[in-house]
Amino acid sequence: xxxxxxxxxxxxxxxxxxxxxxxxxxxxxxxxxxxxxxxxxxxxxxxxxxxxxxxxxxxxxxxxxxxxxxxxxxxxxxxxxxxxxxxxxxxxxxxxxxxxxxxxxxxxxxxxxxxxxxxxxxxxxxxxxxxxxxxxxxxxxxxxxxxxxxxxxxxxxxxxxxxxxxxxxxxxxxxxxxxxxxxxxxxxxxxxxxxxxxxxxxxxxxxxxxxxxxxxxxxxxxxxxxxxxxxxxxxxxxxxxxxxxxxxxxxxxxxxxxxxxxxxxxxxxxxxxxx
Amino acid sequence: xxxxxxxxxxxxxxxxxxxxxxxxxxxxxxxxxxxxxxxxxxxxxxxxxxxxxxxxxxxxxxxxxxxxxxxxxxxxxxxxxxxxxxxxxxxxxxxxxxxxxxxxxxxxxxxxxxxxxxxxxxxxxxxxxxxxxxxxxxxxxxxxxxxxxxxxxxxxxxxxxxxxxxxxxxxxxxxxxxxxxxxxxxxxxxxxxxxxxxxxxxxxxxxxxxxxxxxxxxxxxxxxxxxxxxxxxxxxxxxxxxxxxxxxxxxxxxxxxxxxxxxxxxxxxxxxxxxxx
Lengths: 275, 277
Prior knowledge:
The structure holds 2 protein chains of 2 kinds. Chain A is α/β, with parallel strands linked by helices.
């Protein structure tokens, strides 16, 4: 079943599959990224790069380190080893400081967290006081449109954001992240436990965003990976096992761990319950 | 049958816990209310009768001045310590800090009073004064106020903090825009409980802040004050005049009412906090 010819080494795959083409500018480059927590390896010498546009799906079993990877890139986790280069600058030495880095690389969590204020105030939540005093109606409209939410809330921007449905709240979180004008957007399972209609809306929004910036989506949903297109990374046990064009990776996975994950069988990686 | 027995047993155990304080309160009302006269809340210091004829307004003002000043001193320190604990301290230093605060909380207030007597009254030469008493009271309430503020901040969902941090908000903006709106009610609850606590402390201010006579309004930070707590103590301990003892009961009723009032405000704030989530 596992023909040796089909099993390439991770290094070979990393170097040959779905790297940004020469015409594409590298926006984010992660080199030898490692992270340990209480003696346990969370990320193990990860190498990957993101082009200046397009969607990248990160897939893998629970506990593979996908969310930790996003949190390291965004700067919420600081004690990692290795290097993350964003727009040619090492993120650890980001000129305007770590808060500015987090604005530059937006992160949207799995659980939509809207603040207890109006929809408009939620969109502007990350914007500094001085800028908030200006007329921001255009910014609110453009961010909500990009997040595919404008049509549903345009007539009730001053309503409490917590009255929105979960799917709408998640899109509001995307709009809020866009309002601080990030250069990269990271999403941690943004459509987990959402209905198909909300999923479609979010995916449409991500397709739109990916035309202007790199969008990284952590997901367990292989159909979604297919729908999103772009490149895909498969992670297991803190290691980047395989990467490539999402269609190719889903149809012809090279590594046994990837194939087993795709077949929904238990791979060598410990499950959440084991950890 | 077993259920009834358990219920009866629990009532039997709970009854003294309710009945004894209630009996004390009733006795206090019985002894204190008859002493309520037009002169009680006056500033008349009375020169004779060992406090039996004088009003207690100066003592009420002295007690409130000590309480408010001590809370004003302790509150910024408590907020600073709790913010440090939530923003910068690691798990180990947090654990050490909370352990130290819990230990300080259990030190008898008398010990703080003795320390205040040595340091502020004698060493710094402030004498018995409002400032010395307020600092000692601030030291007493600092641990409880800090622990309350830490717990108030801990109750702010971490999702909010993470979402705000992920947006690139600085720690100070997270504190102001995310933590403050959700924690201020708990913080005020703790503050009013601290005021109630300072109003019920007697021993530490006995050494450091109060005199029985010769003081009316607290006209300087470095002047002695009179307070309800110590007034009751002096009247009850030393008076031979029955009127003075009656005045002590009335003063005690006023003090208990003040403490109950601040506790009630704290309770109401706490209830509103629970309703608002």
